[in-house]
Amino acid sequence: MRVLSGLAVVLALAAGCSSNAPEQQPQQQPSGSAAAAQAQTKDEQDQAKVQNLTADCMKAQGFTYIPRPVTHIDANRSTAGVGDPSQAPYEDLKKYREKYGYGVYGRDVFPDDPAVGNTPIPPDPNEPIRNGLDPARRDAYDKALNGDVQSLKANAGKKPTGPVDLGCVGKAAEQVYPPRPEQKPDPAKEAEYQKVKQKFDTDPQLLSAAAAYGSCLRQKGFQVPSTKPGVVESTVQQAILKERTDLGDKIDPARAQQGLQDEIRKSLDDLECGKDYLKVEKPLMAALLAAPGGNG
Known about the structure:
The protein is mainly alpha-helical. The protein has helices at about 5-15, 30-40, 40-60, 90-100, 105-110, 125-130, 135-145, 150-155, 165-175, 185-200, 205-220, 235-245, 255-275, 275-290.
């Protein structure tokens, strides 16, 4: 799972810090150095740097800000449920789907499980700090931390008419995540990608396997609008995603369990129907994902 990074994401994190955070520092909270020590990946180290720089900036303006601890995710727990199915071993996919299906209703049933993309958010140590301030001081705290973020949100899409105060978190983010130079498309790489994609779209063995895949799904009662390679394997999952989306943000536990059991059954039927297709697709998809100029 990709760890969120970049100025926009850090600003969003900071906005969460400033909502509802005794100006005295609470006991036994992780220090900036502790947050950095917890960081394992490059992205996590960058997040810890932003937090530490934010704390230094806030201190210089007379406020206490405690660097938030970096949340770790065990990527091995989610590899069978994310990414392209053709690149995961069959047994791993089967084991994942036996518990989570595609991970759609699993987000309702397993709210704290990273394997379905849920990331438990640790308590914000800055909430009691902010809540302990009088209203005027609280506004100053928010301004120091977030700068003009509320104004930027209200005027999203509009070009700023003057200098923008990004606050401590924005300044920290600019130091850790410097802007990348704009990259122009490389015609040679794009041509190479199109060549690999054409091979994927027209491979006779893959087309035959995709047709058999679609036929198997229809026999099990699924509607299959297309047997195009790269599309057919998403047929059942997309139907379940639409079903869940139509139910709204919140559903009761009984409905979630019912949905998950149905999802598990359908995802396993899908896996069995597509077993041979995924074998044929694996090397072709791997080439497509790795092709320069594409999305791999």
